[in-house]
Amino acid sequence: MKINKIPLLRGIQKKIFLNFFFLFIFLFLCFYFPLFKMLKEAFTTSTGSFTLNEFKKIFNDLYNLRVVTFTFKEAFISAFFTLIVGLPGAYIISHYKFKGKSFLVSLTTVPFILPSLLVALGFIILFGDNGFLNKFLMDVFHFKQPFHILYSFAAIILVHTFYNFPVVLRIIGAAWAGVSDKYEFAAKSLGAKPLEVFFKVTVPLLLPAIISSFSLVFLYCFLSFSIILIIGGARFATIEVSIYTYYNMFSDFKMGSALATFQALFSLLVIYTYLKVSDIVKTGDIEKSIAPAPSILSNKKTLFFSLIYLGLIFFLIIAPILVVIVYAFLDPFSSKFTLENFAKLFGTDYTYLLGTSFLRVTLNSFAFALFTLLLSNLFALLGSYGLKTNFKGKNLFVSILMLPLAISPITIALSFIIFFRSPINLMNTPIPILIAHTLLAFPFSLRALLPAVQSTSDSFVFASRSLGYSRVKSFFAVDLNLFKNVLITSSIFSFAISFGEFGATFMLYMPRFTTIPIALYRFLSGRHYGEASALGSIFAVINIISFILIEKFHRGRENII
Amino acid sequence: MNEKIVLLEICKNYSDFSIKASFIAYEGELVSILGPSGSGKTTILHIIAGFIPPDSGKIIKDGIDITNVRSEKRNIGIVFQDYALFPFLSVYSNIAFGLRLKHISKKELDVEVRTFANAFGIENILSKYPDLISGGEKQRVALARAMITKPDILLMDEPMSSLDAKIGEKLRNELKDFHRKFGITIVYVTHDQTEAMYLSDRIILMNNGRIEQIGTSVELYYYPQTSFAREFIGKINSINMDGETLYVRPEDIKLSKKRGILKGIVADVHYLGSMSEIVVKLENSTIFALGLTRNITNFKAGNSVFLSFNKNVKQRR
């Protein structure tokens, strides 16, 4: 039987087509074509013939080789330490019941929505040569010299670990709770000692979760940009940083494109591993186990270690935000309360540094974030509805939609610079920045919306239509209400992603389009830490509000990160 | 007979539930712990295995107090309800798991694993992974995995409950053969009375955390000592006669068209195959009688009927 002979099915096909039509126009015009042009740039000579020279230079050129090795080394070590730091937390949240556990778990979302620049600022204020820690050591213990913590390899690892350990905590924690303790008991009954049980049973059972969290953290660190730029100092450059450098310092599009291509290929490999493995990860509930989850108070030794660990987590998450806010109100010389920093920030003192007024900066950020929110939700809705029905080649469609997830902000920016210059030059409009933000936020919105849309029965819509609502009317009356909470979550995420976006914006912006993160970077690189903190604390407040909103609307749902 | 394992006034308290139990399993015996779900039978098994520490009481194995011995040192094997075969290991490695901890040579290990695989008829699935084998094969693998370490006692936690009836019946026979062959002491937990009666040398009947009665299948069926035992095992009719209550099994009721000590009306007939169940309405109660189907074909719903009891009824009230 031919499908399009059945009127109802034909309707569905048409619907899918329409949903994807607009989405694909957007994706191909604003993502795939620019990317293709960048690939062409990497593999052609200036006369237009095919070449592998640029690609070879990644490994022949000493600088490039150093960058590539450093990136792999840094990402691997960061992911390793993150795993080590996150594992005890995963154990605690999966094996004990205690008051405030769900709050603590939700607190671990904070680093996700915290822009990396803010984290970097927090670390500078805490661990810098004039930071709180060194001041404390010199004042109280009369140390002569400050500890040089920042601008080192260790500092990069430290910040990456802080930034990413919640990934490990959440993914492995959830998986560990789902691993029935019967396997461990079975091993014990066969004579396995505690350590043997751990390495021969628990670790293999957790392996999918370990690989999946490791690969995710690895990817984040592999693509690290602003943290390397600020905390690493001039000596260190990841591939992401050097793509920027090639463009910014040498206007070398070809080498940048080659590096970006190499980076994208490897990211794809990692993300493919992540998605494959995370499919296997089963999560569950500790209530189902043989020995019921004990209260954390039941054993003095575990209580002691748990308290230390949990306290440390709490401190690590809260401290960088807290010190930024404190520092904003502090006179650096007298250590007294002051509003000076804010006054300077809102005044015109820094127009020269920011390229535009601070009011304009704020407006820019909000405008980008709001438009991103709208576009990202719109496209995610189109994608989710398109994927609701099953059809041939659906997996390919999903991959096409999700690919932006694997392409780094700097790569997107580079491809835009190459693509949007001719035939019409869009580079002096805000459009490339807006599109870049939307591309970065869209996969997250899709991951938030897709499960909700897919799991909702069509009956609701059929019911409303049978009651006389048109499809459009029932979308507003029924669909929007059904997906209200996920839409809100997706909105907050897309808003926060755009609001905190630094890399792509940094590469694409003109002074008129300076956003809050760019301004923050300007203050940081000019060592205006007071003003940076004032701006950072405003930033932090917005993030805390996002956190509370996400908590309110996303509690108990699937992770979208 | 040797006392293989003794539970001495074991107590375990939970916020809304408590367990108190004492019993003995003798050398080579298959003892079932039978009871409805939530009666605490699995918890007792886990206490014996050492997974859950008792609040008080002692566990004695071969005359030695093992209450405070860690589970990996107890040498007690266990087969879990869903077998808990390690999903990341092949059947071969699952069976070898216990021996690998003992650092024996590869060759010895291989010989042992293959011997046990042969004994349980699973030599042809050794390279498969647990999610690809049938429920019956899983049980055999779980048994082989537990038995290869030569445990003193084997604990089994409702191993048939997740299988369908036909396979369950087959595996019951296999298990009985296995028990005969190895002669190991087995403590077997189940909620299925047919299974318990079929398999066990003795049954420990539990309800609500307490032991109701311990005895052979016959003792429990014909000489129930508590009202719970009476109601839980088999079907029973309680009939009021001359001011006293008579407990009568359905198969002890004889039906007649002409004479008997009670008169009633056939309400329904349930054909069960070789046997049939007849529901009889008395003046103020309903009773069930059981007879060979070919003997009762002339009783139809609506017929009046006379009841009498087998001779043995009176004496085992």
Short description:
The complex is a heterodimer of chains A (561) and B (317). Chain A is mainly α and 561 residues long.
Please give a structural write-up:
The complex is a heterodimer of chains A (561) and B (317). Chain A has helices spanning 7-43, 53-60, 62-95, 101-107, 110-113, 116-127, 132-140, 153-178, 182-189, 194-222, 226-232, 239-250, 253-280, 300-328, 340-346, 351-354, 358-388, 394-402, 409-419, 431-455, 459-466, 471-482, 484-500, 503-508, 516-525, 529-554. Chain A has 561 residues and is mainly alpha-helical. Chain A folds into two domains: 1-40 and 345-561, MetI-like (MetI-like fold); 51-330, Orthogonal Bundle (MetI-like fold). In chain B, the strands form four sheets. Chain B has a six-stranded mixed beta sheet with strand order 6-7-8-3-9-10, with helices on both faces. In chain B, strands 13-17-14-15-16 form a five-stranded antiparallel beta sheet, with no helix packed on it. Chain B has a four-stranded antiparallel beta sheet with strand order 2-1-4-5, covered by helices on one side. Chain B is elongated. Chain B is an alpha+beta fold and 317 residues long. Chain B starts with a strand and ends in an 8-residue tail after the last strand. At the A-B interface, helix 9 and helix 10 of A face strand 6 of B.
Q: Which pair has the most extensive contact? A: A-B, 21 and 29 residues
| Assembly level | heterodimer
Number of domains of chain A: 2
Roughly how many Å is the radius of gyration of chain A?
25 Å
Q: How many DSSP-defined strands of chain A?
A: 0
What string, H for helix and E for strand, traces the elements of chain B in order? EEEHEEEHHHEHEHEEHHEEEEEEE
Tell me the distance between the termini of chain B. Answer: 32 Å
Principal-axes shape call of chain A: globular
Work out the helicity level of chain B. Answer: 25-40%
Instruction: Estimate the strand proportion of chain A.
Output: under 5%
Name the helicity range of chain A.
Answer: over 70%
- Arithmetic mean of pLDDT of chain B: 89
Largest sheet of chain B: 6 strands, mixed
Cα(first) to Cα(last) distance of chain A is 43 Å
Number of strands of chain B: 17
- List unreliable stretches of 5+ residues of chain A: 1-10
Low-confidence stretches of chain B: none
